[in-house]
Amino acid sequence: MANEWLERWREGRIGFHRDRPHPMLVNHWPALGVRPGTKVLVPLCGKSLDMRWLAGQAHPVLGIELAPEAIEQFMAEGEGVTTRYPQAGFQVCRQGSVELWCGDFFHFHIEQAAEIGAFYDRASLIALPPATRQRYAFHLAQLVPPGSRGLLISLEREPGDEGGPPFSVLPDEVRDLFTPNFQVTLLEQGEPEPGRGFRESAWALVRRGPLE
Ligand SMILES: C[S@@+](CC[C@H](N)C(=O)[O-])C[C@H]1O[C@@H](n2cnc3c(N)ncnc32)[C@H](O)[C@@H]1O
């Protein structure tokens, strides 16, 4: 799967990338009540402009992405000085308050996640095949402290369409994956995208404490 993503980036097959901040992020993030200054983890971040939007809301951003092309393009399309340094087996690029770690999300561990207090997933869970999604939900839960809030933007394909990525993740699966460690609230179910048949949905997640 990793090779497929690297190939997609090399060949520029990145139909998932949006050229403006996602409307569900813009509409729902403010109501989550994440304090300005809270660092936001963005797993499987691509070169999403959502990270610039979050930075514009006074959030330091830590994105994790496999493909070096994605990170280089993000930096080239942004403004300001880019610094590069190795950290914990990842190559990190920083521009302003956005730092992008190049490597596998599943190799990013709690010791590196110390300052993280919120998270944002658009098209990350749904980029992963079924067997890996459970691992993703568990790994995310390990990285964020109790009380952390996040926004998840998931996707459903038309009934019977089993293709992917992006994979179809139905609301019951979102609940099953995250309920063990998060409070899960459906915020919005969007309309099917014309011509594509995908339908995105926005979810608020709050990391539970050990006794909740
Ligand atoms: C569907 S794209 C979504 C990107 C971004 N979230 C967005 O909304 O544009 C999924 C991204 O995850 C990256 N990816 C896939 N598996 C990964 C992994 N295990 N660790 C880090 N990045 C990964 C891919 O290279 C790709 O850029």
Keywords for this structure?
single chain; 212 residues; alpha/beta; Rossmann fold; nine-stranded mixed β-sheet; 6 helices; 28% helix; binds S-adenosylmethionine
The strand order across the widest sheet is 3-4-5-2-1-6-7-9-8
CATH topology: Rossmann fold
- The total domain count is 1
Percent in strands: 25-35%
- Low-pLDDT segments, ≥5 res: none
- The helix-and-strand class reads alpha/beta
Query: Order of SSEs, N→C?
Result: HHEHEHEEEEHEHEE
How many DSSP H or I helices?
Answer: 6
CATH class: Alpha Beta
Per-chain topology:
Layout: H1 2-11, H2 23-32, E1 39-43, H3 50-56, E2 61-65, H4 68-77, E3 82-87, E4 90-95, E5 98-102, E6 116-122, H5 130-143, E7 149-156, H6 171-178, E8 182-189, E9 199-207
Bound molecules: S-adenosylmethionine.
Summarize the structure.
By secondary structure, the protein is an alpha/beta fold.
Question: How would you describe what is shown here?
Answer:
- The chain has about 210 residues and is α/β, with parallel strands linked by helices.
- The chain has one domain (about 1-10, about 20-205): 3-Layer(aba) Sandwich (Rossmann fold).
- Helices cover about 30% and strands about 30% of the residues.
- The protein is built from six helices and nine strands; from the N terminus they run ααβαβαββββαβαββ.
- The protein has helices at about 1-10, 25-30, 50-55, 70-75, 130-145, 170-180; strands spanning about 40-45, 60-65, 80-85, 90-95, 100, 115-120, 150-155, 180-190, 200-205.
- The protein has a nine-stranded mixed β-sheet, with helices on both faces.
- The longest helix has 14 residues, at about 130-145.
- It is globular.
- The termini are far apart.
- The structure holds S-adenosylmethionine.
- S-adenosylmethionine (SAM) binds near residues 17, 44, 46, 67 and 104.
- S-adenosylmethionine binds near residues 16, 46, 70 and 104.
